[in-house]
Write a structure and sequence with these properties.
Number of helices: 19
Shape: rod-shaped
Helix content: 40-55%
Radius of gyration: 61 Å
């Protein structure tokens, strides 16, 4: 990210530099354009200046020719000749003739009498240019010269040689600088500052005219063709700048900077967005493959890893340890889910410490972990490692100032002995784990042929159940429930029976666990509900408006939409919701799942009654009765098995009845098989009873006959 930010910064600097360069380039073009205009103006001014100087030199050349023809010249002749040669617009101040280098004639005379008799040889400054002209035998322009009669002027010195190359003298055409500049148009350059300077051969500054400050400014200049020294004519803008950085310049700067900022912001946003996207993708990928609590690989990552292992061939041997914590739900219930999460983290840390770097560990469910042991040398190594893991996880955990001790059950499957597909291995390890739980927990169990046969048997039962549903092999029987207060049958429990195509009765204890494990319990439960509703209509039409109790599996109570479909089915058959009781197991209360609790409250709010089946067999659940919307508890048959002879059972029965009365919950006693049990329940003022002493479960037609005989 820092590298990208540095590139963005450099890009911003380049963009800003480019904007400034472009603005300055545009400004420079304007300046150059105006300088070109000024240079063109200078060319015209120089031409006018040189033209005026050349016209003055033409006068000197004409005099040279006249004197060569007639060296002896009088004052009058000189006056007439000059009147003819000097035009009115010429910048000539006066013309002097100096035979033998001494001035004898001056025109006009009046303002220049002081120059008569001046010997050039007496003035080193002027004699230098006179001697230069004589040596070069050509006209030399000197100046500016401080005239003896006052003022400054340019002097064109023209030597006069006779035909025998004998020097006659010199002619001096004095050019007034002010008139020269005026006649050249330099005095009307109002939109510029101008200056004229002369430098000698060494570049030394000899003379300035005009605004000398422009030599320190940005100016344009041009050389003036004057024979003596270097003359430079220059122009500069009056406000010292050729072109100001006006609105256009600043518009370019501001627009360019804004565009640079926007482009930089876009690049920054693009980079940060890409960075966030990359980070989000990394996070999503991590979340997709790792558990959020323990940061271990999750089920998806485990399955991917397992598929990679199985694709390497059967030469690769490895073991899968399926680890399930015992009584983990009790930690959640007693200490809260945060404590449960801490326990999972602690368990994962202990597992990491027990494994080698080449092994793989993942959390695939609530309290389920899997470990892949790679490159083991014997089954004994796996056996020892499983035992070591069990011992480590049996050590107490310190959670929130509480010392928690838990155990685990481990199922082990080996590749390729116990399966060659990832799904098959995981399923077999899961079966071995359940076998470990059945064996008493806190142990480990290898998948074996017995489990394989059990799996095959369950798969066969599952397949037969599906076919049985299609072939209508399932049916319902009803066991009556008597109301002690009236002595009449007020309820009956719907029980599922399966008689296969060969006429064999298959026990619910055999096929219900398989249905719950495979998920087929949903279809069986829907069949029971629909058939019970159909049969209730028949019973009701026969004049017996009794209530029907229907068992619901914990796996069925995971979806609110399922509960709504149940209510819709009851409504479609015209049955009051209050005539239906759903029986749930005590283990569902202990799971304390919020979603299932919401479903139960919803069903209860719609009038459906709820009963806890086989109450008291698994846990001490009395505290849970206060949290759940329970209408009935059904006391398990084990509380009546040795009653009334067993006084302990009688005492427990009495205690349960008192608790139920205190909570305003009705009690149904199951498994009433003897008159002594019947009479005991009457003495204890139990609310309802069912069992073989009253009636065994009956098909619908026999139930109708039983109701007729019992009720009347």
């Amino acid at each position: 990210m820092k590298r990208y930010l540095f590139v963005i910064f450099i890009s911003f600097c380049v963009l800003v530099t480019g904007v400034i360069w472009f603005a300055e380039n545009q400004h420079s073009q304007v300046v150059e354009s105006r300088k070109r205009v000024a240079t063109e103006r200078l060319g015209k001014l120089r031409a006018a200046l040189e033209g005026q100087i050349n016209s003055s030199l033409a006068t000197a050349r004409a005099l040279q020719a006249e004197i060569k023809l007639s060296p002896d010249i009088s004052s009058e002749r000189y006056r007439l000749l000059m009147q003819e040669l000097i035009s009115g617009d010429a910048p000539i101040r006066h013309v002097a003739l100096a035979p033998n280098l001494i001035i004898e004639f001056v025109y006009p005379l009046a303002p220049n009498k002081a120059a008569l008799g001046f010997d050039y040889r007496t003035s080193p400054a002027q004699f230098e240019s006179v001697r230069e002209a004589i040596q070069k035998k050509q006209i030399v322009v000197d100046g500016p010269v401080n005239l003896i009669q006052g003022g400054w002027a340019l002097i064109a010195r023209a030597p006069v040689f006779m035909n025998d190359n004998k020097l006659w003298g010199t002619i001096a055409v004095v050019i007034d600088i002010g008139d020269l500049l005026a006649s050249s148009g330099l005095d009307s350059v109002d939109d510029y500052l101008f200056a004229l300077k002369r430098e000698d051969a060494n570049g030394d500054h000899l003379f300035d005219f005009g605004d000398v400050s422009i030599w320190n400014e940005d100016y344009v200049a041009i050389d003036v063709a004057v024979s003596t020294g270097k003359w430079i004519l220059a122009l500069a803008p009056k406000n010292t700048v050729w072109a100001g950085r006006g609105n256009i310049y600043w518009i370019i700067i501001v627009a360019g900077l804004l565009l640079s900022f926007l482009m930089t912001a876009f690049m920054y946003n693009l980079v940060t967005t890409q960075s966030r996207l990359r980070s989000a993708l990394v996070t999503i990928d991590h979340q997709a493959h790792f558990d959020s609590i323990t940061d271990l690989p999750n089920r998806r990552a485990f399955v991917d890893y397992l598929n990679q292992l199985t694709q390497k061939g059967r030469e690769q041997h490895f073991a899968i340890l399926f680890i399930d914590l015992d009584h983990f739900k009790e930690v959640n219930d007693n200490l809260g889910h945060d404590a449960g999460d801490e326990l999972l983290v602690s368990v994962s840390d202990r597992l990491r410490n027990q494994l080698r770097g080449s092994d793989f560990i993942a959390r695939i469910g609530g309290d389920e972990f899997v470990v892949v042991i790679n490159r083991f040398t014997s089954h004994q190594v796996v056996n020892d490692l499983a035992g070591q893991i069990n011992r480590q996880l049996s050590e107490p955990f310190n959670l929130r100032q509480n010392q928690i001790q838990t155990t685990c059950s481990i199922g082990i499957a080996l590749y390729p002995d116990d399966g060659i597909k990832a799904s098959e291995l995981l399923k077999n390890a899961d079966l071995a784990m359940y076998a470990a739980k059945t064996a008493g927990r806190r142990t480990h169990y290898f998948f074996n042929d017995e489990l394989r046969e059990q799996t095959e048997r369950q798969n066969a039962i599952h397949k037969r159940m599906r076919e049985g549903l299609k072939q209508h092999e399932f049916s319902l029987v009803y066991q009556p429930i008597i109301d002690f207060s009236s002595g009449k049958i007020s309820k009956c429990e719907a029980l599922l029976r399966w008689k296969d195509a060969d006429g064999n009765m298959i026990s619910p204890a055999e096929f219900i666990p398989v249905a719950e494990r495979t998920g087929l319990i949903h279809e069986l439960g829907q069949f029971v509900l629909e058939q019970a509703c159909v049969d209730w209509a028949v019973v009701h039409k026969s004049g017996y408006p009794i209530e029907v109790s229907i068992n619901r599996s914990e796996r069925e109570l995971n979806d609110m939409e399922s509960a709504k479909r149940w209510l819709s089915c009851i409504s479609q058959h015209g049955i009051p919701n209050t005539s239906i009781t759903f029986e749930i197991t005590e283990s569902l209360l202990m799971s304390n799942k919020q979603r299932q609790l919401q479903i139960l409250h919803y069903l209860r709010s719609q009038g459906v009654q709820l009963a806890i089946d086989d109450f008291g067999t698994g846990y001490s659940s009395i505290n849970y009765l206060q949290r759940y919307p329970v209408d009935y508890i059904k006391i398990d048959r084990s509380f009546l098995h040795q009653a009334p002879q067993n006084k302990v059972q009688v005492a427990l029965l009495d205690a349960l009845l008192q608790v139920a009365r205190a909570l305003d919950i009705n009690v149904i006693a199951e498994g009433v098989e003897t008159r002594q049990q019947w009479e005991l329940l009457q003495q204890q003022r139990c609310d309802f009873a069912q069992g073989y002493f009253i009636s065994e479960p009956l098909p619908l037609n026999e139930l109708l006959k039983f109701l007729k005989d019992w009720q009347f």
